[in-house]
Amino acid sequence: MSYSDDKVNPIIDNDEELPVEDVDEALYGKEDVPDSGRMLAKPIAIQAIRSDLRQPRRVVPSEIRALVPDYWEDPEIMLNHWHQLAEQRHGKPISIHEGLMGYGVGEDDARTEDGLVRGFYDLMALAASIRADGLNNPITVVKHKIKEFIIETGERRWLAYHLLTTHSYSDFAKIPARIVDEIDLWRQAGENANRQDLIGIDLARQLALLIMDLRVGIGGQTYYDFDFFVKFGECDRAFYAQVANGNIHGIPRGQGQKILNATGIASMDSVRKYRALLSLSDEVWQMADDNNWTEGDIRREVKAAILAAIGKPTAAPIVEEDGANALIDEADDNVETTITWVNTDESNFQIDDRVKTPQGIGIILKRLSRSKGNDHRGLYIQLDGGSYPAMYHISDVEMMISQVAAPDAPAPAPVDDALVLIDGYPDLEELFKILA
Fold first, then answer.
1. What is the spatial distance between Cα 46 and Cα 186, in angstroms, rounded to a whole number?
2. Cα–Cα distance list, 238 to 224, 243, 274 (Å)
3. Which of 33, 369, 394, 420 has the greatest CB tally within 10 Å of its CB?
4. What 3-state DSSP class applies to 351?
5. Which of 426, 200, 388 is nearest to 293 (CA)?
6. What is the pLDDT of residues 71-123, one digit of tens each?
7. Which of 21-25, 39-43, 175-179, 274-278 has the highest mean pLDDT?
8. What is the pTM for the complete model shown?
9. pLDDT digit string (tens) for 265-303?
10. Cα–Cα distance between 223 and 228 in angstroms, integer?
11. Selection from 76, 265, 297 nearest residue 169 by Cα
């Protein structure tokens, strides 16, 4: 399809470099530029560009990445899968032609709660804007091989160009790109913070990358590469979780404000909350990422799952009772499910209460406390079974509860990252703590 009067060519036809006047200065500060005072963006074939797999924002949903793990090799196949699955999940046809023309997308469609469907509508809306008005801000890339580049910033814009070219807008086969020497994590964070607020898992990824960048080399500190932990299409949490333990991988002295400025996080207390998300189970991490849950959404969802697993109403309130916090149970009076916190720093772990579910499965509720009066209270789900019972995922606990017909069935093998619920406290550093 050639250009007509209602479309703006995104690049100069003869492939000459495009002047972009100070387009990134507001985000990254002033950089070295030619004597003209203008930055230069060069049109680059979109087929010569690939994603940065470590990028905090996951534009392509995990279900689609699992189907097409190397999606940057053939984005057209990936986009077709995404379109088909979005239609299935949405329950009605999605016209890409109408979407790229800027009409045919209703408010209900754009605001659907399904993250996969909403993400596809968002990508169509961006592509429609680029088709009509051109690209206001070039992407940033790093030369990877002789004829290949990796995206530093702008993956959504790059995918929008692919969506246009796969639907006959051939003039979008090249995208304006500014070439830099290497990926700058802080510039990447600045763009993410300014263009669209990161939330939940995206922000946890961003935080982890910046902490790694600050700590590498300190006392010989190194971190494994992304490929060491993550295979194509699989969950990426393990890579970022290298810095989950703030006691071992703390932010260097004097660098806290730099972290806050780069991420847009309001306070160091909030930094601890986002770092805590690095210790989520892979399943919860993927679910939260695909559905764009905020940090608060994640806590609420996990709380509901834990309460449901131990036979408690999800709306059970937290109240003050004689100086201690109590979770008031409104379930069957025959079920012991009241949890009372006891303030003590005599040991790292102390059993506060034992619970019997309606099916008679024993669960221990524990809290974590620290020395020096710094008390971090939480709810741990643990199978009762000796002096040092093993910790289990919430999904395993639910399965145990469901095994009423076969009470002698072997319990699932314990896992490292037990779910932890800390409710009603501003400091969530130990949320979902990995327990040995």
1. 24
2. 10, 10, 15
3. 420
4. strand
5. 200
6. 777 888 999 999 999 999 998 999 999 999 987 565 556 567 788 898 999 99
7. 175-179
8. 0.61
9. 889 988 988 998 888 878 888 888 888 888 888 877 776
10. 10
11. 76
- As a whole number of angstroms, the distance between CA 350 and CA 432 comes to 17
Apex 357 CA angle, 354 and 360, nearest 5:
95
Q: pLDDT tens for residues 31-63? A: 444 444 455 889 999 999 998 888 888 888 888
Q: Would you list the DSSP string of 135-189?
A: -SS-EEEEEEETTEEEEEE-HHHHHHHHHHHTTT-GGGSEEEEEEESS--HHHHH
Helix (H, G, I), strand (E, B) or coil at 250: coil
Does an H or E element contain 379, and which?
A: strand 379-383
pLDDT value of position 341:
28
| Residue 53 in tokens | 């797999």
The amino acid at residue 351 is: I
- Helix spans in 255-373 (H): 256-263, 268-276, 282-290, 295-309
Instruction: Note the pLDDT of residue 195.
Output: 64
What would the mean pLDDT of 17-35 be, rounded to a whole number? 39
Strand order in the sheet with 362-368: 349-356, 362-368, 379-383, 420-421
Residue 307 confidence (pLDDT): 54
How many helices (H) and strands (E) would you count in the chain? 16, 13
| pLDDT confidence tier of residue 417, bands split at 50, 70 and 90 | very low
Residue 349's H or E segment, with its range, is strand 349-356
Backbone angles phi, psi at 145, to 5 degrees: -130, -175
Q: Tell me the CA end-to-end span of the chain in Å, nearest whole number.
A: 60
Q: Name 9's Cβ contacts closer than 8 Å, sequence gap at least 6.
A: 3, 134, 171
Interatomic CA distance for residues 249 and 243, integer angstroms: 5
Residue type at position 220? G
What's the token pair of residue 43?
């049109």
Q: How far is CA 126 from CA 58, 101, 121, in A?
A: 16, 11, 9
The two most distant CA atoms of the chain are separated, in Å, by: 81
Amino acid, res. 72: W
pLDDT, residue 290, reads 86
The two structure tokens encoding residue 285: 């991490």
Identity at 89, one-letter amino acid code: R
